[in-house]
């Protein structure tokens, strides 16, 4: 285990790397790292904690040629690092998708990148961490969930306390292995484009901006849901969301931290049967003048 927290570290050079071959757990929380630096050469790291740094990308950003140090020139010559494939312009870096770059740190399963000021997930090149299972990105400036398509074994994604308003077409474009998705304290108003979350069991949506009951109804595209939180959203003031969610999600076992029992399901069904009766009565009333005229 390597544990160097709060040490003002800017770069990591582990020489010789063979001396660190058996390291499986690295904690460099609360430092000044802008990339994973020399950590990418550790072959057996399973858990990496980089909370409270300034991470911009897995690989160091490429500087103009005249300012490259001898060490950076050496990194650039290693094809598997991908360092030399990053263009000097931001546009080029983003257009060359990380899915086209070779995987790195193939033992890494757990990654903590909370509170790093991250805005752009694509620039991070997280798609290269192909065996990642748990990803923690809470407390950043993220507005879009993207650049994670190749994380095909990812089980838990934490993006609480970010700036996400909605999901674009590429957020969850492929059938996902996700079991848990944490989205609390964002700015979500709509819940579209979640149909690829075919295995999702736990979804946390507390303290967002959801106002319309029809948005909660969209969650029925995730029939595997067993636990859900929606407390702290404007829709919860109307006190009808619980009946709606229990009725539409037959496998739900926990809602806002409260277990769902058979009485809750019976009440939800009764609530909807009453609604249906009212709708039928209303339609009949509207038709009466017309049928009488006939």
Automatic annotation (TrEMBL):
SMART domains for this protein: LRR_SD22 (SM00365), LRR_TYP (SM00369)
Q: Which UniProt keywords apply?
A: Leucine-rich repeat, Repeat
Q: Which Gene3D superfamilies match?
A: Ribonuclease Inhibitor
Domain of life of the native organism:
Eukaryota
Cross-referenced Pfam families? LRR_8
Q: What is this protein called?
A: Leucine rich repeat containing 9
Native source organism of the sequence: Mus musculus
Gene name of the record? Lrrc9
